[in-house]
Amino acid sequence: MEKVRKYFAGFGLEDRIKTFDQSSATVDLAAQALGVQPCRIAKTLSFILGDQAILVVTAGDGKIDNQKFKTQFGRRAKMIKADQVEDLVGFKVGGVCPFGVKEGVKVYLDQSLKRFDTVFPAAGSSSSAIELSLEELEKYSNYEDWVDVCKAWQES
After folding, report:
1. Which three-class secondary structure string do you get for 48-62?
2. What is the pTM of this model?
3. How far apart are the first and last CA of the chain?
């Protein structure tokens, strides 16, 4: 989390990071800690495309649609194994976020987030989050593009 705190300090936003006594490592736990609906948690999923790690940030109620993912990225969705995430992305599972990631890791934002004014991504640990507008999420994640790779959220 210190890595993310330093990252946001560069923008004067480190005080907006929320930390919790309890875990926020899952969508449900984060929603409970923040007192918001699970769909507003911006979960960051780690995938491997060939030899490159990518992150896809989705709404908490979104699930990866394998066909949409393959259409978007030209390959089947293959999540990074839990024991490799920190090495490839820079954060441990439960605290993966799109800020201050390792060089070369591309970040994509899923359309499922666009229905909210603000969302809550993790802030580098399994007991932290930060509330950001979509414009702030775009800016601070240094995202590559908006993608449409999720299903199920339209029914929520």
Report:
1. EECCEEEEEEEECCC
2. 0.94
3. 31
